[in-house]
Amino acid sequence: MIILGVETSCDETSVALLDDDRGLLAHLVHSQIAIHAPFGGVVPELASRDHIRKLLPLVRQALEQSSLHSSDIDGVAYTAGPGLIGALLVGATVATGLAAAWRRPAIPVHHMEAHLLAPLLETPRPGFPFLALLVSGGHTLLVAVGGVGDYRVLGQTLDDAAGEAFDKTAKMLGLPYPGGPQLARLAGTGRADRFRFPRPMLNRAGLDFSFSGLKTAVVLEARQLAAARPLEESVRADLASSFQEAVVDILVARCLRALEQTSLTRLVVAGGVGANQRLRQRLRDELTARGREVYYPRHEFCTDNAAMVAVAGRRRFPSRDATRSYAITARARWDLEELAPA
Ligand code: KG4
Ligand code: ZN
User: Fold this and answer.
1) What is the pLDDT of residues 213-227, one digit of tens each?
2) Distance between alpha carbon 50 and the CA centroid of its chain, in Å?
3) pLDDT at position 179, please?
4) What span, in angstroms and rounded, lies between the C-alpha atoms of 89 and 161?
5) Helix crossing, 277-289 with 179-187: angle to 10°?
6) Exposed site from 67, 108, 138, 207, fewest CB < 10 Å?
7) How far is CA 135 from the centre of its chain?
8) Phi and psi at residue 44, in whole multiples of 5°?
9) What are phi and psi of 318, to 5 degrees?
10) Residue 204 scores a pLDDT above 90
11) In 290-333, which ranges are continuous DSSP H helix?
12) What is the Cα–Cα distance from 39 to 95, expressed in whole angstroms?
C-alpha cells in the first residue's frame, strides 16, 4: 500500500510517498524560513499563501521522482490539526481534493500523533508501550503511549512550550529567525556552567513543565550585563549554553521521573526540539546508565515533515467497510487524548 502524506500545519510545505514494502519513496520539504525571517516569526497569512503556491508542484515532483502514477496511490493523509488554521486548510483542501479525484480515502491526521509515530520510520522501531516526550514549538508533552490512539497525557507545559522558550530566548539574544537551532549552535561554543539559571517546577511533584521563568531569568541577566557594555559573542554563547543546559535538565529530570512512575522502559523523543544534540546526548547517557532505551527519529523526521504524516495515516487507514468521507477537516486546536484507538 502506498500513502501520500501532506504536511502544511505551520511553515513547512512537505509531501511524502510511503510504501509498506519499499519504505519512503519520496520525501520533499519546502521551508518558508526566507519568507518569515524578516518578520522574526511566522506570519500566518504568508504561510497559507506559500503553501498554496508550493503544495501541488511538490506532489507532482514526488510522483515523478518515484516514477509513480496517481493511480498507484492508495490513500491521501494530511495534517488536519493542531496548527495555523489557514495553513491547515490549504493542505486539507488539496489533499481531500486529490483523494476525491483519485477515488481513494482521505485520512485526516493529528499533527502530534504524527510526531510521536515518527520513530516508526526508523529501524529498530520502538515497540509499544512507550513514554513519549513531545517537544515542539507549540507543545511540551509527556505521553504514555499504549498503542496507536492509546494516549495518556502525564504532563505538559503550564506556559511556554520548550521550542517557544528556545525561540524567544534566541530572539532576545539577537539571533536570526528561526531561533531554536541558531541558539543551539551558539550554545555549542559556550560554557554551560557560566550562569546558573532556575529549573522551574523541578522540585515540585508531578510531571508538568514551566519555561517562562527561565526565559525571564536569561533576559534579566542579559540586560544587566548589557547595561555595563555590549554583550560579547562569548558572553552570548555562555548565556545560550547555560539556558540550553537548564532546559535539558528540566526535560531529562521529567522523563526520568515519568519512566519511574509508569514503569515504562522505552522513551521516544519527538518534535523539533528533539533535534537538539545536547538533549539527545544527555538522554542517551542517563537512560542507558539505567538500562532503559531511548529512540529518536533522525533530524528531518523530528521537525515538521510529511513522512510522519504518511506513517500516521497508514496506521489510520480506514477499514474496507468504512463510509468514505471527503469532508475537509482542519482544527487549530485538537487534544491528543480525544483520538480514538486505531
Ligand atoms: O516540530 P516543529 O518543527 O514544529 C512545530 O510543530 O512546532 O518544532 C519547531 C520547534 C521550534 O521552536 C524550533 O526552534 C525548535 O523546534 N528546534 C530546536 C532545534 N531545532 C528545532 N530547538 C532546540 N534545538 C534545536 N536543534
Ligand atoms: Zn510539529
Assistant:
1) 999 999 999 999 999
2) 20
3) 94
4) 24
5) 70
6) 67
7) 6
8) -50, -45
9) -65, 150
10) no
11) 299-302, 306-315
12) 29
* 229 CA distance to ligand 1 middle (Å): 31
| Residue 313 Cβ contacting ligand 1 at under 6 Å | no
* Cell numbers describing residue 249: 535538565
pTM tops 0.90, yes or no: yes
* Cβ-Cβ contacts under 8 Å for 314 (sequence gap 6 or more): 1, 3, 18, 20, 75, 77
Quick one: pLDDT at residue 178?
Answer: 87
What pLDDT, on the 0 to 100 scale, is given for residue 19? 98
Looking at the CA of residue 304, tell me the nearest atom of ligand 1: 3
Q: In sequence order, what are the residues at sequence separation of 6 or more whose Cβ sits closer than 8 angstroms to the Cβ of residue 169? A: 179, 183, 215, 218, 219, 240, 243
pLDDT of residue 177: 87
Q: How many residues does the chain have?
A: 342
pLDDT in tens, 157-195: 999 999 999 999 999 999 998 899 999 999 999 999 999
C-alpha cell at 174: 539577537
Amino acid identity at 63 = L
Q: What per-residue confidence (pLDDT) applies to 203?
A: 85
Residue 276 predicted with pLDDT over 90: yes
Cα distances (Å, whole numbers) of residue 17 to 33, 71, 288, 324? 24, 13, 34, 21
Residue found by looking up cell 555595563 in the block: 228
Q: How far apart are the first and last CA of the chain?
A: 17
pLDDT at 202 over 90: no
Nearest CA to ligand 1 atom 7: 137
Residue with cell 559556550: 190
Q: How far apart are CA 93 and CA 99, in angstroms?
A: 10
Instruction: Locate 21 and state its grid cell.
Output: 514494502
For 19-177, where are the alpha helices, taking DSSP H only?
A: 33-36, 44-65, 85-102, 111-117, 162-172
